[in-house]
Write a structure and sequence with these properties.
Layout: H1 2-7, E1 70-75, H2 84-98, E2 101-106, H3 111-120, E3 125-129, H4 130-138, E4 151-167, E5 182-184, H5 191-203, E6 208-209, H6 214-222, E7 228-232, H7 240-246, E8 251-253, H8 258-267, E9 272-276, E10 287-299, H9 304-315, H10 318-325, H11 336-339, H12 349-357, H13 360-366, H14 375-388, E11 390-395, H15 399-412, E12 416-421, H16 424-436, E13 444-448, H17 452-458, E14 487-493, E15 495-499, E16 524-527, H18 533-546, H19 548-555, E17 560-562, H20 565-573, E18 579-583, H21 585-592, E19 598-601, E20 605-606, E21 608-615, H22 622-632, H23 635-641, E22 659-660, H24 668-677
Parallel strand pairs: 1-2, 1-3, 5-6, 5-7, 11-12, 11-13, 16-17, 16-18, 20-22
Antiparallel strand pairs: 3-10, 4-7, 4-8, 4-10, 9-10, 13-21, 14-21, 15-18, 15-19
Helix pairs in contact: 2-9, 2-10, 6-7, 9-12, 14-22, 18-19
Amino acid sequence: GENYEKYFQRGTSMRRSTLVFRWLAVLLALAMFAASCGDDDDSTSASDDGAAEPADEPADEPADEPAQSLEITLGSTNATSSAFGLFTSHARLAGDADGDLTINVRETAASAENIQLVNDGDVELGISSWELLYQAQNGLGDFEGAALECLEPIFTYLQVAEFMVARSDLGAVTLADLAGKKVAPSSLGASTEAKWRNIFEVLGYDIDRFEGSLEDIVNAMKDNRLDAFGKSAAGLSPDASMLDVASTTDILPVSLSDADVAKLRAEVPFYTFGTIPAGAMDGWPEFKTPLITAVYFVRCDMDDNEVTRITKALVETLQAAADESGYGGADNIPLSLTIDTIDLLPLHPGANQYFSDVGALDAAADEPADEPADEDEVAALVAAAEGEGKLVFYASPVESVAKRMADAFGAKYDIEVEFLRLSSSTLFERYAAEQDAGTTFADALLITKTGFVRDGIGKDWFVPLDEAGIPDFPGAYPAEFTDGDTAVIQVLPWLFAVNTDLLPVDEAPQEWADLLDPKYAGTILLADPNVSGAYMQLWNLVRQELGDDFLTQVAAQDMQLYASGSPAIEALSAGEGFIEIPSLGALVAGQVAQGAPLDLTIPNLTTGVEIEMAVSTDASNPNAARLFAHYVMSEEGQVVLNEDPATYSVFDTSGLPSEYQSPVNATDEEKALILQLLGLS
């Protein structure tokens, strides 16, 4: 169903903060950027003339030496490019700000030509896509075997998204939905076209490729001869071609899934991605897409003081140039966009001096470093764990999730993996009984957060995670999901599951109040709240926010009661009702995989099941347990764990419902009241 696909494979975002773009890599050639030439002759400024002081009077303090006149040429882009106005404005404003700096603008064929011009000394300053400059310096791509190592960036001036949009009636939500469809990666010959084509190839999504100019693409979209197309945006907003198509054809963005991003980063590490907030166009949801950044650059042997001066003039006039030229890609560019990439492509020392002078490098240094674990430490742990050769873990997530983690971990390491999947309440009882009997069968647990792990740490059943010797932990682990002792590894919001053979998803309840519609009477399947504290967490939140009367009214809808979520979702698949509440994305995914006609809706007001990692104090295979925890809490493990619909990695919770609240346990009194109000006591 359409909502199931919307939430499918959200996986790990690998971002270190929400809705803030992390610029860690390089981007494609920007054939669109360059400028016009000017006079290359050097110019100088006249010296000041003044009378000498009499010898018998104290000499005046020497004045600051005036800046020397400096004239350089910028290799930019074609004069017909929309970026040309930015460069001409920027050159003039930077020169005016410095007072003795002249920047002539030379028209070029953009990035590739600029790289050769600067390298050969024909111009002093150039612009290039970050990615192409990286490839040139490192001898990759077209520069294989001919690296140009003496090219260094001075600062990043541009960020542009590369959108993939599709007709809304196609129902495409992620890139995988475009497999087999008529798609134009972009206009033929554009760098965006090459990038999207490569993305489809790397991910293995075969498309019926459409080739043509931008005009051809726009007309084909309007005539319904084309399903989707890619195009660089206007900064982070739809460009004129997308607005033109939208004037006659409803379009929506197509998002990369987190699993897509993880695979692309592994195969093409210099690609950069970002999340575009909802509302980029009316009705558009949040989506993930490739990004472009571009830089000014110089030769490595250019004078440091001159580069510091040029960098200062350009950085401090960029916003004015963006405002004057109206070029959105250069609007509101933070200094961090430059600083975040210097570990991959170091700045010229003169530029580095400027950023140090303004405190940008100090600010970056003050941020907690994402220090990776020492390779020897991880290698030693792997050797010890493989020496034990076995791992046993208990899991409260659904069977398919537990099996997926076991298979992935066992495939990565030479370790035999066994697991036992139980409902959370049954798992609590079993593990506690084993501990009381002095036995420990489970080396590690993936377990619903209810306070059980924290209580177990107090009883010495579990090792506090920050004392367990787990590489990379806590490190850069999101602070909101760990207190050191414990760590959440997965967030699954409670939702409504729908049998779409009986009820179209657009007619299904979207919010809690919708459940009271008389047409749903007798059609709602209810997982028994009394079977798990996690159910009680949800119902208590609903009671607190919507009132006791709401639970009484829901109970009056003649709901059918099932022992837990598993039999309830199976009954929904079999057509015993229209709606099952509450449910989880992983449960829906398991049934859809078996051909069930299910979809889902997520109310804005909800809490969820949050899964914690736990390591047994008396584990029979302690090193395997530590390695498993390291894997589960890594970005790689998070992708595997969180690939089901409406399932969120701790590294990316940006798609959670707007009123989501972390679960809070209900008291015994509150549980009794909930059961009474729902007519279950």
